[in-house]
Write a structure and sequence with these properties.
The complex is a heterodimer of chains A (about 425) and B (about 290). Chain A is mostly helical. Helix content of chain A is about 50%, strand content about 0%. Classes of the chains: A mainly alpha (about 425), B mainly alpha (about 290).
Chain lengths: ~425, ~290
């Protein structure tokens, strides 16, 4: 099958070359019709019948330099087209208003929706509804070289999707022009982007895994897979176990009951610049995220050694919120399932502090030395230390200043000066 | 600072060439002081970025050395060295006082232990500051020197103990309540701050920068001081030694000039680092 197709293609090529050598001089162009008939006759002899209609058109449009009156290329690469998903179709299946040769100079716009009605109706309700700004070809690529999405040559092949969307949603594309967030570089540097671009993982989330393809909705639309309440399910399509853990936890419950202040996946992991959670960069950036809601807890965390050592870089091992509280399956402290429930503390603290015992876990990672009622012992220790510091320094600063003045006074007098009276 | 150098040169010139030098500190004591101040500078330089981990310079310092982990490592290293120096010192004191039965280690005019005279000296000194009395005469250790000593002694115990409690928290939790671990950080950082502020402002001025010693009291480096300085600063000790005929025992040789210069470089570097840290500490309250 293959070899015969290749033979046909090469026959066709020979004929086309032959035809072009005739049409090269303007004198010959006048007799184009006659030559076409000649070529068609030859083509009928050489090519299989399914290609008849294409080769009719390609006789002219196969010329790579062919342009319309406005100077746009109207050339079609016959071999690419015949390999494309529409390769078995006749030209006028799409260019339906062309019935005969010669055809009118202005022909109707091709309507993909005449065949792809479902996709067209999805698109019509999406953020890309304007067909002028977003013709099918803006994502699927050149109309004559459309390949199935499973074909690596396709613009919507999983590994090519980020680049395709990035044409507009990247820094240098329409993103800047229209003030859209430039998500492409964020995505490419994310764990998903790495999996896709470095490892070529077809299952790695690409743009359409989360946003959908034709019916892309604004994240403000409750129907959108990226609407806040829908995000756990969207991420859960791949991360099923984490989604299940999350749904069991406090945050999952809150979101499910309509509290959209509670965090979903993207609040901690971000949407596009998702980092590997064990990476130091992620460990560094996430504590303030929890703290943006749990403000009092963040401020007391900041007072501790965990924070002093760990919050600002380098020493990433020190405990972050989720090291103790859990990440996805978070429960209130009172819940026995919580890792910071009393009964679990020895095990939880022991993850880092080998040998942690019952006394050790009385340590309060959120102690507030300014709160006399909550932490009286700590309050008085701090008060004592502050008083000691202030009283010692106050006494000695006064002592030293007086001493300096007096010593200088003596020194000047001893050396025979008269204390500035010479001036 | 050419001015300062001139002062130093002229001060030396005043001393007659046959002027005698008296030993004040043994070489062991001077080495311990060197270890003490270098590890203290190290501890301060690494402790402050942790204490003020939010400040710009702390972040910069952490970035420069590869993060707070590196800072903590160096902090612990200095702490270990200082702990060893501290233990050697305590052993020395007890060896002198208990084993060798040396007089005046634990009590008396030459002891570091405070006595009534120190209180009277302090009040007298304060009166002299404001011109209400004569300048008190000091013995081997003046009251502010004793305060420096005990402040450091107490500081090392308190900071050391709270530091080790945090370093080996699970071990210390066997006999300390959990809240003590919370308190350890408060105590460690407040006492450390006190030590830093005290040493880099009060000790520097009282011991080195005041007019009697300006710009630096070299005795802790060279171990000896001139007769003139000895008489001026510690008249009681000089008089007692003269009375007991023990002055001769204390005569030492003039320090080599290269050693004095070397010590000056070390000393001024330490003071410069200290003052820088002092400025950073104070600035952390505003930035």
């Amino acid at each position: 099958m293959r070899s015969s197709a290749r033979f046909n293609a090469s026959c066709e090529e020979v004929l086309l070359r032959l035809f072009r050598s005739f049409t090269a001089s303007s004198e010959v162009v006048r007799h184009r019709g006659a030559f076409i008939s000649f070529v068609v006759a030859l083509a009928l002899f050489a090519a299989p019948h399914s290609l008849h209609a294409q080769s009719d058109c390609l006789a002219c449009h196969g010329d790579k330099s062919m342009q319309d009156a406005a100077g746009h290329s109207i050339a079609v690469d016959g071999s690419t087209f015949s390999a494309s998903i529409h390769g078995s179709m006749k030209c006028n299946n799409c260019h339906a208003d062309i019935k005969e040769y010669p055809h009118p100079e202005h022909i109707a716009r091709v309507e993909c929706k005449s065949c792809h009605a479902d996709e067209a109706s999805s698109l019509a309700g999406s953020v890309h509804s304007s067909s002028k700004d977003h013709p099918c070809s803006s994502c699927h690529g050149d109309a004559h070289s459309i390949f199935p999405k499973s074909d690596s040559r396709s613009a919507v092949y999983p590994l090519n999707i980020p680049k395709t969307c990035g044409n507009c949603h990247g820094t240098d594309g329409m993103a800047r022009k229209h003030g859209l967030p430039s998500v492409y570089p964020n995505y490419m540097d994310s764990i998903h982007g790495f999996a896709l671009s470095k490892e070529g993982l077809l299952v790695a989330a690409n743009c359409q895994s989360c946003h959908g393809s034709h019916k892309i909705l604004s994240r403000k639309d409750p129907q959108s897979p990226t609407f806040k309440a829908n995000i756990p399910k969207t991420c859960g399509t791949c991360h099923a176990k984490i989604d299940a853990d999350y749904e069991r936890g406090s945050h999952g419950h809150a979101v499910a009951s309509g509290n959209l202040k509670a965090p979903v996946c993207t609040d901690c992991h971000t949407a596009h610049a998702i980092l590997q959670p064990t990476e130091s960069e992620f460990r560094m950036q996430s504590t303030p995220i929890c703290g943006s809601c749990h403000k009092d807890k963040l401020s007391t965390y900041h007072d501790t050694f965990h924070s002093q050592l760990g919050s600002l870089g380098g020493y990433v091992e020190t405990a972050r919120c989720w090291d103790c509280h859990g990440a996805h399956e978070i429960y209130p402290t009172a819940d026995p399932r919580s890792p910071v429930a009393k009964a679990n503390l020895v095990a939880t603290c022991g993850k880092c502090h080998a040998g942690a015992n019952l006394s050790f876990v009385q340590y309060q990672p959120h102690a507030n030395a300014h709160d006399r009622k909550l932490n009286p012992a700590l309050f008085y220790v701090r008060l004592f230390m502050n008083l000691l510091l202030i009283s010692v320094l106050t006494f000695f600063v006064i002592h030293t200043i007086l001493w300096l003045i007096r010593s200088r006074f003596d020194q000047v007098r001893r050396n025979g000066s008269n204390g500035g009276n010479n001036a | 600072m050419p001015e300062l150098e001139q002062t130093a040169v002229s001060a030396e010139a005043e001393v007659p060439s046959e002027g005698r030098y008296y030993r004040r500190f043994t070489s062991k004591q001077r080495y311990l002081h060197a270890v003490l101040f270098s590890t203290f500078l190290g501890l301060a330089a690494t402790g402050l970025p942790l204490r003020f981990s939010e400040s710009i310079w702390a972040r910069g310092a952490a970035r420069a050395v590869g993060g707070f982990g590196a800072i903590l490592f160096f902090h612990k290293f200095c702490a270990l060295v200082l702990t060893i120096a501290f233990l050697i010192h305590v052993k020395e004191v007890f060896a002198r006082g208990l084993y060798h039965r040396e007089k005046g280690v634990f009590w008396g005019a030459t002891s570091m232990v405070a006595n009534w005279k120190d209180l009277k000296d302090m009040l007298g000194h304060l009166r002299w500051f404001v011109g209400l009395g004569p300048k008190p005469k000091f013995d081997r250790y003046a009251y502010w020197e004793k305060f420096d000593y005990w402040a450091v002694f107490w500081g090392m115990i308190v900071i050391g103990f709270s530091g080790y409690a945090m370093w080996f928290a699970p071990f210390f939790a066997r006999f300390l309540p959990g809240w003590a671990l919370n308190a350890a950080l408060v105590i460690h950082s407040e006492e450390g701050l006190l030590a830093i502020l005290f040493i880099f402002s009060i000790h520097f001025v009282n011991t080195h920068l005041r007019p009697d010693s300006f710009p630096m009291d070299m005795v802790i480096f060279t171990g000896v001081e001139s007769e003139k300085e000895f008489q001026h600063k510690r008249p009681l000790e000089y008089a007692r030694l003269a009375r007991e005929g023990k002055l001769e025992e204390r005569v030492g040789s003039a320090p080599a000039s290269w050693f004095v210069n070397f010590s000056r470089i070390i000393g001024f570097t330490a003071i410069a680092i200290g003052l820088t840290l002092l400025v950073l500490t104070l600035s952390a309250y505003f930035y």
